[in-house]
Design a protein that fits this description.
Two copies of one chain form a homodimer. Chain A is α+β, with helices and mostly antiparallel strands. The first copy, chain A, folds into two domains: about 140 residues, 2-Layer Sandwich (60s Ribosomal Protein L30, Chain: A); about 170 residues, PurM-like C-terminal domain (Phosphoribosyl-aminoimidazole Synthetase, Chain A, domain 2). Chain A contains eleven helices and twelve strands. In chain A, the strands form three sheets. Chain A has a six-stranded mixed beta sheet with strand order 8-10-7-11-9-12, with helices on both faces. In chain A, a hairpin with a 6-residue loop joins strand 1 and strand 2. In chain A, helix 2 runs parallel beside helix 6 and helix 6 packs antiparallel against helix 11. The longest helix of chain A is centred in the first third of the chain and has 19 residues. The interface between A and B is large, with 70 and 71 residues.
């Protein structure tokens, strides 16, 4: 089976007219036609076996995740998904694998009206590279650079479950089976917070998606905005979903593990964002409209640096290093 | 050295204001702002070691080629390069390698005013995935579907040298050192025909870039346009540059090797295009304005199929399979 047949069979679908896509798969280029006044938000992520996923991962989950991590970047900018390209290196042509992978990928794409408009397929060690395109009105994109002293710091959804699943799957932590299944779903099929990102336009002063661990990613906002922050570590620890499934006293998870997973776990694909305290009701309305829970976990300070405090306001000294694809 | 430092050191450069790029590297997304009335042409290519390049290739050449093959797709659509994203999986952080790779890549990017606006870096088997963006006035993109019976078939530059170099480097053909150097330059540092693609807007009825071999790629035009073609194989054989460096009688290259390389060699990154015979002078002016030679190699026919003839008009039976990244 040749390269072109392979692409055609699993990944070519008719592009609906309109919707910002003038020409889809099948020519040298796809043609995007953003609406007047719109800018095109572009992001790109590459997933490698053994680094971003296990060799035995369900290919449908992998297809979902490969697109989800890219949609998460659009969400962080407040952009509406439009289209994506897929480049795929495969060690062999395995039709069952491809069918499942394409199924997981295209199901999520359909949920977000995001058309597959082009790409490339080659033989090689398994590698998935997606570039995603979204529309955002000129000047309205959420950036990392807008946080101001006094702003609240918010985070969506849950934190740390993906890392807990990773720790358990690699045998470093014991987790009950039901809890592991739920945590593993967060690791393998994260939910990009696209609806929340769209609702936060005009409300959030800065935003990014939490992919490498909360503290490390927050650091990008602090550097880009020239500010510091204080984070309530106990508030953040509550955001792990797995603890709610535990025995009420958080079972056998110690405080340190919870902090490590929620503060620096990685693979969360939640939005962290800032907004002035005067906009708390607006944030709550945005979260409700997006059907996405949000929690307030700290505030931006004029003094540089990241200060970690517990519920009693006591400073913590612990270091919570973020996941780094070369250091990790 | 962490992932972010690595990206920052070699690939982050200030984006000049205007030029269609509103925000470059450093946020969750880049922001492109195509001029009013413009569509955005998008293409994506993935290069894998051992499949698209040798492990010992000069990294500066590799950087050049990784972008060149993408710019070639923009050229085929008549789009002006605007920006690109780079995703890179590296087995290790080798600063000398990165410096050379970035040098070759960014030099070509600068020649075409094409800004690096984002990307991803990860550990993994060497893999280079570039997605490129260009601007083209709405409705003016050169497509594969516009060829009409009676149109001339043209091709730019030279054909077959890259394949000749590949055959020689893999020990299947003996080639004099000087000739190999020239042919290898075509393999490793192809010239994307961007200027020609821009000049051919409004003249060519169809176009594509020759990346997998002339005949196989022409097949895409024929299928997309619902037509057939007759190709003068002897005209095509003349387009190999290496033969001109030979001894006049084409040295030791036999006719079959020349045909194989020029008709089905792959890695040429020339433009194949069609235009009505009435536009021959316009094509010549476009080629002169782009300082790119073009040659007329056949014509489009209403009857389906690809008919190969020699200089005397005799039909040839030989099959010239194109390079396929799974069959090859």
């Amino acid at each position: 089976m040749g390269e072109f047949d392979l692409i055609a069979r699993y990944f070519t679908r008719p592009v609906r007219p309109g919707g910002g896509v003038a020409l889809g798969v099948g020519d040298d280029c796809a043609l995007l036609a953003p609406a007047p006044g719109m800018q095109l938000a572009v992001s790109c992520d590459m997933l490698v076996e053994g680094r971003h996923f296990f060799a035995d991962v369900d290919p449908a989950h992998l297809g979902h995740k490969a697109l989800a991590v890219n949609l998460s970047d659009l969400a962080a900018c407040g952009a509406r998904p439009l289209a994506f390209t897929l480049a795929l290196a495969l060690p062999r042509v395995d039709e069952l694998w491809l069918q499942a992978f394409a199924g997981g990928l295209l199901r999520l794409a359909d949920e977000h009206g995001c058309a597959l408009v082009g790409g490339d397929t080659t033989a090689g060690p398994l590698n998935i590279c997606i570039t995603v395109f979204g529309e955002v009105p000129a000047g309205q994109a959420l950036l990392r650079s807008g946080a101001r002293a006094g702003d609240d710091i918010w985070v969506s959804g849950t934190l740390g479950d993906a890392r807990l699943a990773l720790e358990a799957l690699q045998g470093r932590v014991q987790v009950p089976a039901g809890m592991l299944a739920a945590a593993r779903a967060r690791l393998e099929t994260p939910t990009p917070r696209v609806a929340l990102g769209l609702q936060l336009r005009g409300i959030a002063t800065s935003a990014l998606d939490v992919s490498d661990g909360l503290l490390g990613d927050l650091g990008h906002i602090l550097r880009a905005s020239g500010v510091g922050a204080e984070i309530d570590v106990d508030e953040v620890s509550k955001l792990i979903a797995a603890s709610a499934l535990s025995t009420g006293d958080r079972g056998h998870f110690d405080t340190e593990l919870l902090r490590q997973c929620t503060l620096a776990g990685g693979d969360d694909y939640e939005l962290a964002f800032t907004a002035p305290p005067a906009r708390r009701e607006a944030v709550a309305r945005a979260a409700a409209a997006a059907a996405t829970p949000v929690a307030r976990i700290g505030r931006i300070r004029a003094e540089p640096g990241l200060r970690l405090v517990d519920a009693q306001g006591r400073a913590l000294a612990g270091r919570y290093a973020s996941f780094d694809h070369f250091a990790g």
